Amino acid sequence: MEQPRPKFLEQIKEDLDIVPVCALLGPRQCGKTAIARQLHCDAS
For residues 9 and 38, is the Cβ–Cβ distance under 8 A? Predict the structure, then answer.
């Protein structure tokens, strides 16, 4: 089950408007892939 992450998603979207590249860094199993999937779904 994916957790809502509106704060992180909004910050990443704002940053992607400035620079079209983003690196999601963090420890294992912290939700990097889930955030990437949510961004991809929102962009489609």
Answer: yes
